[in-house]
Amino acid sequence: MRPEPGLRIDAERAASAYDNAFKPFHAWVESTGFRTHALRHRTLGRGGDSRLAEEFLLNTRYERADRETETSIEAYFASAYTATLSELDNDEPVGLTEVVLPKGVPLSLAVGRAFARRSSGRIYTGDPIEIAYLASIVRSAAGVTREASVGSPGGERTLRFRSAPSGGGLYPIALYVGAIRVTGLEVGVYRHHPRRDSLIRVGDATSVQRLLDSFAVHEEAITLERADAVMLLVGRPWRSMRKYGPRGLRYLFLEAGAIAQNVHLATQALGFASVDCASVVDEEVHATLELDGVYQALVHTILIGYSG
User: Fold this and answer.
1) Which residues face 235 on adjacent strands?
2) CB within 8 Å of 117: residues ≥ 6 apart
C-alpha cells in the first residue's frame, strides 16, 4: 500500500511498530544457551525458560472465601498482636554507635511543585550534604509521624505510624543509609531506627566502598564516586507474609515504592538530586550488610547527591 501524498514515514516508528506487533517463530531457541530477554519474550513457551515473574502474579492473587488468609488477618486484631505491633522495631542498639538525628530542614517546596520538578538526577558535583538535610530526607522516607493509644487487657498500647503507608502497619522495610559525604556524620553504613529517630552505625568506610563497588553502573551513567549517600531498602518478607501470605510480598514492594517516592520528593524539595538504581549485585550488598538474602533481602537502592 502506497502512503498518501505528503505523508511522512518515520522509519524509527515503523521499525518500532513492526518489532512490537510481530513475534517471529525461532525453532532454534531451544538449542541456544545465550538468550536475551527480548528473545525470551519472542519465544514464550518454546525455550523452556522459567516463568517465575508470571508465577509470582498467579500465586499472590487474592481469592474469594480464602479462609486461611481471612483467619490469619483476623488474628492480628487480638490483643496479643496489638502488643506485638506496638513493639515493632523496639530493639536496643547495644554496643553500636548511635547518632541521634538533628532537627531537619523544613520542606518548603509545595507538593505540587515538587511533583512537577521531580526528575532523576544522575550527575553529582561531589559537594557534601549536611546532616540536617539528610535527617529531613530520612524522616520523609520512614520516620514516625503520628502515635495513637489503643486499649488492651494488658493496658494502653502505643501504635506508631510512619511517613510511608504500610500494609497492616507492619513496616517490613528497613532503611539503611550509606553515608559518603555527609557533613556531621562519619563515613559509614547506618540503619535507621524510626522509634529512636536515630541512625545506628553498622559498617565503616570500607563497608561504604564495598556498597559502591556492588553497583554495576558506569560513572558516565551515574557519578557514583561523587554521590553523597545511598539509601538501601531492605525487605523482611515474613513480617507481611505471616499475616497476608504470599500476597504480603506485594505489599512489601508497594511500601518500598512509597518510601522511594518520599525520598525523591523530599530530595527535590531540599534542592538535591536523586535517582533509583537497580543495577546492583544483590549478593554483594547482602554480604556487606550481613543479610541472609531471604528473610532479609535488598529490595531497592536510591542514590542522592548535589547536582549544582
Assistant:
1) 173, 297
2) 109, 268
Among residues 243, 306, 302, the alpha carbon closest in space to that of 271 is found at: 306
Closest of 60, 109, 41 to residue 246, by C-alpha: 60
Note the pLDDT tens digit of each residue in 12-50.
777 766 666 666 656 666 777 787 877 777 777 766 777
Beta partners for residue 189, in sequence order = 178, 203
What span, in angstroms and rounded, lies between the C-alpha atoms of 193 and 199? 6
Place of cell 520512614: 142
What's the pLDDT tens digit per position in 129-144? Answer: 999 999 999 999 999 9
Between the CA atoms of 149, 150, 155 and 158, what dihedral angle is there, to the nearest 10 degrees? Answer: -40
Measured between alpha carbons, how far is 45 from 40 in angstroms, rounded to an integer?
Answer: 9
b/e burial code for range 24-42 (CB count within 10 A of at least 16 → b): eeeeebeeeeeeeeeeeeb
Give, in degrees to the nearest 5, the angle at Cα 307 between 306 and 308. 100
3 state SS of 209: helix
Contacts of 180 (CB under 8 A, 6+ apart): 187, 208, 212, 227, 228, 229, 230
The model's pTM: 0.89
C-alpha cell at 282: 544483590
| Exposed/middle/buried for residue 102 (C-beta within 10 Å: 0-12, 13-18, 19+) | middle
Farthest CA pair distance, the chain: 82
Which 8-state DSSP code applies to residue 280? B
All domains in the chain, ordered by first residue:
1-49 (no CATH), 59-305 (3.40.109.10)
**Burial of 149 per CB tally in 10 Å (0-12, 13-18, 19+):** exposed
